[in-house]
Structure formats: structure tokens, C-alpha cells
Amino acid sequence: MAKGEADNLDRRAPPPQSVTRVIRILEALCASAEPVSLADLARLLELPKSSLSALLRGLATENFVVASEGAWRLGPGAFGLGSALTEARRRFQSSDLIRDGMRRLAERSGETALFGVFDEDAQMMTYVDVVESRNAVRFAVSAGDRRPLYATAGGRALLAARDPDEVAAYLGNMRTEKLTADTETTSAKLADSIAAARKAGFAQTIDQAADGVTGTAAVIRDAGGTVLGALIVAAPSSRLQDRLDLLAQLVRDEAAAISRSLGYRG
Fold it and tell me: What is the band of 159 on the pLDDT scale with cuts at 50, 70, 90?
């Protein structure tokens, strides 16, 4: 496809149904340690057996799947493609994929997008990349700046993704200070906030680390499930009163999309 044609694609249009179904078939077989029967695939993917059978035959023609004792498993074509994709991923660094996602988030939200990582030594969160909002009034921070875990959406999201024993140790040893009049410094309440973030899949703070700043964050994982950092959107609180739920959905969706591009299938 020529570059001009690719640029003119309507990315909002849904993909052809057959393409989506083929991807789901391959993902289902990839997730199973054993061959999967047609009946089980149909039930798992909620697809008619007739349609599923036709797609499997097409994939078998290209050696992407192989029939095995009345069931289906991945074939050599799928493993060859997987190897090629792994090599391509080595060439296309994860930082590029994360920054692309940050740009999408900044564009969709109209606010500043950030990527923060857990600083183990200092028990802080460090911002390592920033895509600023185009708004004249916006949240501004520099790469390399650090913030307390307990007072930031990114920090709480990172804590929520850790083992509960590690969280308990952090809360038991942390040194807090009132950064604003609203900063929460009570261990029990912070534990509740972190537990809520773990359940919801995102963390959100209002006027915790700085007056008039709202942050929303969700973690990004790599193919092995390791947390790489937190994707964050931050903006003046006054502009977000009616958009908190929307921002939470945007951040959670984009973090999931980036994680998926990095190979995460959890």
C-alpha cells in the first residue's frame, strides 16, 4: 500500500469481521497449552461453528493452524510469523510504542500525558517522558522530576500493581507531608485508595500533590506481565469537574492498548 493510501485510511471504521475473528482464533490457540476442539473454540469465541470452520480451513491452508486429533493447534506458519514479529519488536523499541500511546492520549484528552516509573531506591515516582497539552493553561512537569508515590495518581497505580505485602511495607515505612490542604497522609485511607485502584484498573487523585491538579493513571505491562511504568494524564482540576470518568476510561484504554502492543495478553 502506498503511503498516501495508508494516510487516507479511516481509522475509526471497524475492521472487517473476518479479520477480527482470525485474530481472535490465533490468540485463543496461542493461550492454550493443548489443541482446542471446534466446539470449544466456538464456545470460547461465541462464533457459529460453520463460520469458524471456514476460517480454520483458510488458516490451515497457510499453515497457521494444524488439525490434531479432532482439535486445532498453532502451525509452523504462526510460529514463523511470531519470530518475525519478535524481531520487528526488537527493532521498534518499547519506548517508541509507549510514546506513540502518550501522543494519542494527549490528543484524545486534550491534556498533558506522562509516563512515570517506580524509583525503588527513593521510593518515589520519576517522570521519564512528557507530551504536553496544547492548552495555554496546562499541567507542566519535566522529565526527571520526582513525586511521592502516596500523593500521585501514577504512584498509587504503581503501588496497586505490586504485591500487597510490598504495599503494606511501603505504607508502614513511608514518610509523608502535607503537600496541599487535601493531601492524604493516613496509612489506612491510602491503603483503601490503593485497593480501589487495583480493583478499578486505574488511580485518580485530585489536589493531592499540587493545588488545582488532577491526575489519572494506569500501568503499562510488557509481554511477561512486568509493570514498566504508569501512563498518566494530568490537568488543571477546574477543567475536569465533568470529565473525570471520561479521563479514567481514556487512560485505562490507552494503557491497555500500549500493553497489548508490547505483547501483554493478561
Answer: very high
Half-sphere exposure of 253 (CA within 13 A, CB side): 10
CA-closest candidate to residue 226, choices 263, 197, 182? 263
Within-domain flag for 172: yes
Decide which of 74, 91, 108 is a domain's last residue. 91
Say if residue 50 is in the same domain as residue 159: no
Inter-residue contact 202 to 216 (CB < 8 Å):
yes
Residue 123, domain member (yes or no): yes
4 in a domain, yes or no? no
Q: What angle in degrees, to the nearest 10, is found between the helix axes of 244-261 and 94-109? A: 160
- Dump pLDDT digits (tens) for 12-33: 455 567 888 888 888 888 888 8
Domain that holds residue 231: 94-261
Say if residue 148 is in the same domain as residue 74: no
Mapped onto helix, strand or coil, the DSSP state of residue 82 is helix
Closest by CA to 213, choosing from 148, 126, 158, 151, is 151
CA–centroid distance for 253 within its chain: 7
Residue 228 lies in a domain: yes
Structural domains counted in the chain: 2
CA distances from 68 to 61, 65, 80 (A): 15, 9, 19
Same-domain check for residues 66 and 183: no
Which residues are paired to 113 by β-bridges?
131, 233
Which carries the bigger pLDDT value, residue 204 or residue 137? 204
Q: How far apart are the first and last CA of the chain?
A: 33
pTM of the complete model beyond 0.90: no
Please indicate, yes or no, whether residues 63 and 123 belong to a single structural domain of this protein.
no
Element of type H or E holding 11: none
The three-state secondary structure class of 46 is: coil
